[in-house]
Every structure is written in C-alpha cells, then in structure tokens.
Amino acid sequence: xxxxxxxxxPGLYEHYKSTPTDxxxxxxxxxxxxxxxxxxxxxxxxLYVIPEHRGARFQCRPLDMFLEEVVYKGVKQPRFxxxxxVLK
Length: 88
Known about the structure:
The protein has 88 residues and is mostly beta strands. The longest helix is centred in the last third of the chain and has 5 residues, at 63-67. The chain is built from one helix and seven strands; from the N terminus they run ββββαβββ. It starts with 10 loop residues before the first strand and ends with a strand. The chain is globular and about 40 Å long.
C-alpha cells in the first residue's frame, strides 16, 4: 500500500446522495491502474439500475475522487461511505 491507497478496502459502499427511498449502493472490487498514466481508480459495480448506462456494469472513478469528502446540504461527508463486506 501507499499513501493514496491507505484506508481503502473492497466491499460495499453507499454514495452520499443515497436516500431511504433511493439507495445507491456499490460493490467495490478493488483498485485499478491506468497503464499509460499510472493513475489509480476505484473499480466498482453499481447495485442499482442506471438507465443511461445501459449494458455498462463495471465502472471506475479516480481513486482520489472516490476517497474525497464532499459538502452536501451543508454536511461534510465521504463521497462513498464504507458499509461492510455484504448488503444486509
């Protein structure tokens, strides 16, 4: 591990815009690396339907962005919150 990957772990995450009536869970598989730029990405599968992503199941986001905190409705929180290994 290096400083960019400290604190990262595969498992189930919830997006900060998730609500009790519209849960946005993601199964995070691990970290991938762009072989041209060496940039690190979180590799995940959305566990809900995204109509505009027809057929696309695997997605990635720059690791720095995945791990960052955002301010939403006046509250600072992680963009993706670790929930555990499986959905209960």
